[in-house]
Amino acid sequence: MTDGLAAATSRETIGARVVLVPVGSTEQHGPHLPLETDTLIATAVAEAVARRLGGPREGVWVAPALSYGSSGEHQSFPGTASIGTEALRFVLVELVRSLRTWVDRVVLVNAHGGNLVAVRGAVEQLVGEGHDVQWVACATEEVDLHAGRTETSLLLHLAPHLVRLEMAEAGDCRALSEILPTLVRGGVAAVSANGVLGDPAGASGDEGRAVLESMVSAITGRLAAVVA
Prior knowledge:
The protein is an alpha/beta fold. Helix content is about 40%, strand content about 10%.
């Protein structure tokens, strides 16, 4: 995004009303998706929402993404780089405190389920301090658990050159309710040797485009009244 916060000058941000902060992760996504999958999704959603809300001309900016999250459940797999729940919560609190010295509202756009405890805790603390902050999730009813058809479709739409489709394979396809106790005790590796929770078969860029549209529309609807 050429008009994101990182590319702006200080003077150009005067009068900012909303800053969207993509919150992602660097973690395994099976044998076929990049480690930055969640960060790419969070960034794409935040950028699309910002455009629909008028972008910088309406005081709506997208900050650089937080690409390290709480991914301890994936730590058995090489490539995963996690800072844990407490560190992420602390980073979010300090970041929002800083942003709020010059912007009216901060919205955390989260794309990794493992970040939820940190995100919720940070927002709860910040609201208690009097900050105008909220969080939204990059999620739709179609989303499967991890590195399955939905995330593969999203990446085929957003960054097809990063998808190793020829290496895609199904993982554990059971419902979360069935695998959760084992997953909590032993992480993703305890239920899926390849790190996939779902089946990427049938994924397509067209489906990814539709999923992204659903996410963006839902979040834009929640934020439109605030910006207006």
